């Protein structure tokens, strides 16, 4: 067996020894406090970025581009991954987590600006992002380079995913929806690995958000107010 799998199994044995008693209260049901929609990038440690080691606390969804949209025969709908804990586990908070240097946003940006080719499965995922990111291209400042454009479009994509949730009839009005960006590339002020709040329930203005949420004003920031 490949050494990587052997190493994973050894690490899992340590995990099982540490966690065996932590499942006592969640073996038969779950009631997570939040559902997080993260990019599946290997650098985004979905539970660790929140310091979470409690089974049942977070319902984590991962896909390239932190998408909340899926296509059905009747059109676009909220992804079942996101909707499941809301419908069946009483979860009332959704956090959409983008990240700096997102590969899916980069690939979508390059496809829209230069044209590119991807395998069918990847292209399907990018096709779900194109309409939500494409509209942002026209608003980009003319003097930004490729990396700066991508990081602004990361925010734009998070905004569009939040918007889709807020406007969907499938998501009950009492569910809080928050959009954030995880930074490990020194793009935002602060430390590597910090999460920056950019959108709360559709509000994206930094000043407005800081006034509404003074307890976290230092964590509210944006690269781009378009």
Automatic annotation (TrEMBL):
CC cofactor: Zn(2+)
Name of one Pfam family that matches: Pro_CA
Coiled coil: none
Keywords from the UniProt entry: Lyase, Metal-binding, Zinc
A GO molecular-function descriptor: carbonate dehydratase activity
Domain of life: Archaea
Residue positions binding Zn(2+): 39, 99, 102
Catalytic reaction equation(s): hydrogencarbonate + H(+) = CO2 + H2O
Enzyme Commission code: 4.2.1.1
Cofactor note: Binds 1 zinc ion per subunit.
Cited InterPro entries: Carbonic_anhydrase (IPR001765), Carbonic_anhydrase_sf (IPR036874)
Similarity section: Belongs to the beta-class carbonic anhydrase family.
Protein name (Swiss-Prot/TrEMBL): carbonic anhydrase
Species whose genome carries this gene: Halorarum halophilum
Higher taxonomy: Archaea, Methanobacteriati, Methanobacteriota, Stenosarchaea group, Halobacteria
